[in-house]
């Protein structure tokens, strides 16, 4: 990746396009522990981007898989007791082998069991990225505030502040997706205004964004151990790693939203099934050049 120089939209886009240019060479292996609704789309999207998906259900194979993979996606969409245990084993293995975790806390705003599982994962790991919709990110922001005894709750009327504060508090890059997407590493907040309303009419576009983020974070961290044993990471190393995770996250969000725009043009209003097929096909045709010419990226400096 080019060296990081400044918080400008052009600089972010330069990093993102370099990830698109190298994904097919790196071919990151993305380990998915995910839900039963979207799993097939997630495999196809990872492949279409140039990555390699592996889906796993067995606790017994996490130790074998972890050293091989570029990134681990934990998506709790249809979580159950056995998968919760497998996720914790996988998260601990990822920590041991210095692999990035991408956490998608699907439905956590329901509270109850899902919230318990997310808390469990956060007690045992620091995800590189937490990605969710407004309800999910809003719920996590509120949890965090109440855990610290803060009276006021996070207000999604101010998404810029919510993502930046949650990123600072968790140590994770936060992705808030929806009509407008926001990504923050705790310092920079980027606003992404691509996409199309039809993306919200098929299930799993948010979950698949998690796969795209995991794919590009895997490329961005290629050859980097997040937890090198016996070595202190300098502040510059930490910053470099966070920048890479941030760029991977922006690249993943743009994959979903830009392919959505291309799919509307390609599927000519033949309904949601053909839109979804066109969307997966369009993801496979994205290039650094398309990203550069179509991405609507704004850096937000709001307080
Ligand atoms: N109204 C919209 N306009 C533009 N883009 C949108 C719109 N709605 C969703 N998107 C795009 O689709 C992606 C998925 O967002 P969405 O909020 O629909 O996910 P979700 O509801 O969490 O999905 P899932 O079905 O996986 O749970 C977003 O990253 C965004 O880019
Ligand atoms: C519909 C649904 N239910 C659990 S996961 C999922 C996919 C979208 O998040």
Automatic annotation (TrEMBL):
GO terms for biological process: thiamine biosynthetic process; thiamine diphosphate biosynthetic process. Its cofactor is Mg(2+). It catalyses: 5-(2-hydroxyethyl)-4-methylthiazole + ATP = 4-methyl-5-(2-phosphooxyethyl)-thiazole + ADP + H(+). Keywords: ATP-binding, Kinase, Magnesium, Metal-binding, Nucleotide-binding, Thiamine biosynthesis, Transferase. The keyword Nuclease does not apply. The keyword Amino-acid biosynthesis does not apply. Gene3D superfamilies: 3.40.1190.20. Pathway: Cofactor biosynthesis; thiamine diphosphate biosynthesis; 4-methyl-5-(2-phosphoethyl)-thiazole from 5-(2-hydroxyethyl)-4-methylthiazole: step 1/1. This is hydroxyethylthiazole kinase.
């Amino acid at each position: 990746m080019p060296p990081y120089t400044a918080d400008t939209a052009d600089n972010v886009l330069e990093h993102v396009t370099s990830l698109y240019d190298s994904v097919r060479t790196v071919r990151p292996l993305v380990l998915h522990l995910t839900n039963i609704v979207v799993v097939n789309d997630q495999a196809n999207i990872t492949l279409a981007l140039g990555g390699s998906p592996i889906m796993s259900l067995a606790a017994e194979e996490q130790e074998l898989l972890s050293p091989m993979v570029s990134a681990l996606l934990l998506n709790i969409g249809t979580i159950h007791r056995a998968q919760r245990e497998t996720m914790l084993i996988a998260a601990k293995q990822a920590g041991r082998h210095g692999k990035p975790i991408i956490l998608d806390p699907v439905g956590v705003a329901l509270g109850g069991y899902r919230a318990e599982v997310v808390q469990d994962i956060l007690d045992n790991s620091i995800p590189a990225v937490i990605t969710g919709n407004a309800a999910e990110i809003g719920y996590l922001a509120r949890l965090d505030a109440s855990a610290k005894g803060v009276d006021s709750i996070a207000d999604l009327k101010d998404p810029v502040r919510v993502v930046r504060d949650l990123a600072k508090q968790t140590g994770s890059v936060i992705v808030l997706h929806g009509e407008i997407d926001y990504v923050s590493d705790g310092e920079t907040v980027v606003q992404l205004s691509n996409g199309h309303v039809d993306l919200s009419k098929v299930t799993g576009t948010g979950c698949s964004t998690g796969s795209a983020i995991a794919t590009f974070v895997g490329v961005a961290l290629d050859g980097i151990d997040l937890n090198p044993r016996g070595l202190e990471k300098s502040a510059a190393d930490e910053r470099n790693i966070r920048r890479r995770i941030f760029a991977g996250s922006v690249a993943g969000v743009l994959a979903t939203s830009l392919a959505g725009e291309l799919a509307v043009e390609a599927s000519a209003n033949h309904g949601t099934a053909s839109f979804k097929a066109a969307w997966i096909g369009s993801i496979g045709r994205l290039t650094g050049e398309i990203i550069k010419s179509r991405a609507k990226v704004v850096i937000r400096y709001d307080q």
